## 1
Amino acid sequence: MIWMHPLRAAACASLVVLAASPPAQACSTCKCGDYSITLLGTEKPYAGRLRGALDVLVRSETQGRGASARETDEWRNTLGFSYSLSETLILGAQWPWVRKRIRDANLAELEAQGWGDADLVAWWSPYRSGDPSLKQIAGLRFGLRVPTGEEIARNGSALDIDVQPDAGALAPNLGAWYRYYRFPWLLSVSGTYYFYGEGRQNFDPGDAATASLLGQYAIDPNWAIQLGLDLRHAQRNRFDGTPDADSGGTLGMVYTGIAARFLQELSVSAGAQLPVIENLHGAQDEDAVLRLSLAYDFR
């Protein structure tokens, strides 16, 4: 039986990394939920799998109010590769190409694009139950966000942190995940904690905890529908050591989407997220998020 590669509902980037006024903004640093699920996949793992993946994310947010309001539009295209060293150990890497546009209340606009920060991930699954049909899998997730992204500058000066592709902050992260298979159903649960270091322009992102719940129902072996919930709670960000009042808090988003598999090797998924919990500090407003994911198994 074939299990669909899902669109991770964790597509909300920088929902809690916001600020009160244009002089002290915070660029996006990470996303709600398990942003690396495309590379891990929900299929039952096998040794020797080499996977390439592309995630396309479109999102927008508004931060601040009145004369200090700022809108941010983001298009993030993330290329990734993973390799299964064994049935219990998978290694992966992701690197995003990001384009951002910010608009202030005075109608001033700024746009930039470039490579963002790379993510290195390892999934280890010591718990496996129900062989040979394999009903349950559980394990740990080890990750590291590396500040490999570009800092975009014009006329010799770095552009506003909000329009930069990424924050340029080192971020070790640790999590756990669980999968339950009972055709035509699949249940996936994961959680991760991010330990952020200081980024560029004296911007220090707050540590964040994320959690994802994804349910999947296979209409047939090649098509599935998905419903999920992603949560994120983050500490306030800091600028020059001063807490940003309009950052941090708790956000929850509901995801709905579809997934399909073509020619056994290609998985495609698409869906949208809608915010349902917005217990965020200060003036922060996140719009719906759209996402398209493709994964191809070379072997």
## 2
Amino acid sequence: MPRAPARLAFALCLITLAVNLQAPLYITYADLSGQGAAATAVAFSGYVLGVLPVLLALGGLADRVGRRPMIIAALILSMIATVLMLLAPSLQTLGLARLFLGLGTGLASATATAYMGELMGSDGSPRAANWVTASTSLGFGLGAALTSLFLLRGPSLTPGSFHLQLLLAAVALVLVWRLPDPRPTQRSAMLRLPCYPRGSVAYGLAILLAWACVGLVIALLPGILRQHGLSAWSGFSTFCVISCGLLFQPMARRLSSLKATLLGLLILPCSYAVLAWGADAGRLVAVLLGAVAASSACYGFIYLGGLAAVNQLAGTEKTRASAGFFLLAYLGFSLPVIFTGLLSDRLGSRMALLVFGGVLLLGCVLVGLALCLSARTAAAQSPQLQVRN
């Protein structure tokens, strides 16, 4: 089926589109529930609670039930989450919806690249990861941008973007249902715990810092922008901080894993400074430019460089090592955001942004030094190994 990869890419885009569909309405849900930034961050982190069980304990599920049922289940979960937000818009419902979205994304992520490679055939495996990365990155950012577009027409708890996601996801369900499932099911071990090969933890900490920045933009920036009457534009900042990273991935692929990651760690605190200043001062252009620059690090240089390095260090344990990499990434996506939300409620948004920026800068310096030291040690050991051989 020549169009099968495109059908799968469409489905993956719809699964991830639902994840940040509600992002521009976070502050509205908080107002309805009488809560602040910390409660919003906790509801936002329900997504991670859904992803982690799949990441930690269900690594072998795709081998047992097949690839296609995983994608179908993920689409259904994305639709359930959207229906929940249409029926009962609140911060509590948001936490539950994001739990379903996390489960769905985890199921899709566990099999997407392998399934895409199988649909492309023996010569398509190098392109499979690129297709999956492009479709999911586009979806993650596009959902928030679509909702912001509909909200520009006027405030609503049930914007048209929600109905559009349901319609397109239903179309995707039909298309995926007709896809082949080339790989036969087999009884493999369900539990595949993450692992950290020597030298990989620093790359995991780099993506933790990067995705902490992304989480802050999605969860907390709408409330800060509202102080300047710009909350309707928060979806575009989410789109910029996620999807624009695609533009920098070809450049990241031309660099070594170490250089790409170090470049990302250099860009990240600088871009955050521009973004945070723009949010605090109410300068939308600075927010969007900072978000694009941060995206180059978060979904370009650090993401691709770190993942490639971990896979290279992993040897035969690539699946478990990748799970370890994403475990740290999703911890960064949740815990720092909750902590910053607590600071924002107690000390104000400006102080919260400053503290987060200080920790981010310190973290980037320390992780960068650790990566350089690790590379120097590996280079020093390499000649010794050659002499012994």
